[in-house]
TrEMBL record:
Pfam families: Response_reg. Gene3D superfamilies: 3.40.50.2300. Keywords: Phosphoprotein. This is Response regulator. Residues 3-113 form the Response regulatory domain. The modification 4-aspartylphosphate is found at D52.
């Protein structure tokens, strides 16, 4: 079972995406902003982080930068999702437009988890 940290300041989207992720067999933890997510990530060690861009306290892109600066967290795959049309994400971060297409959302989650699993297998142990 995969653990996903879902970060968004919209409670209705958190509920909707949580249901989709749970239907995919994921355990879901939620945070209302990037600052709280950054506090939760080292404790949860999630397999995937999905974050909105526009949030109070710390936005999703700031969260991505903070995750990449932390050696223990930089390997966690991230999906940035936004209603904005043009978002420049950091390298290695997937972008998903908030289109309401839950099948596309689920497909991207499965793809990101599969790619992360493959990368872990191919990375030599330290």
């Amino acid at each position: 079972m995969h653990t996903v940290l879902l970060v968004d300041d919209d409670p209705s989207l958190l509920r909707l995406y949580t249901r989709v992720l749970e239907n995919l067999g994921c355990t879901v933890a939620t945070a209302p902003d990037g600052r709280e997510a950054l506090t939760m990530a080292p404790v949860l060690c999630p397999d995937l982080i999905i974050t909105d861009v526009t949030m109070p306290k710390m936005d999703g892109l700031e969260l991505c930068r903070a995750l990449r600066e932390d050696a223990a967290l930089r390997g966690i795959p991230v999906i940035v999702h936004s209603a904005l049309d043009a978002v420049v994400t950091p390298p290695g971060v997937a972008f998903l437009r908030k289109s309401g297409d839950l099948k596309e959302f689920g497909t991207q989650v499965i793809r990101s988890l599969s790619e992360a699993r493959l990368a872990r297998r191919l990375t030599p142990a330290a």
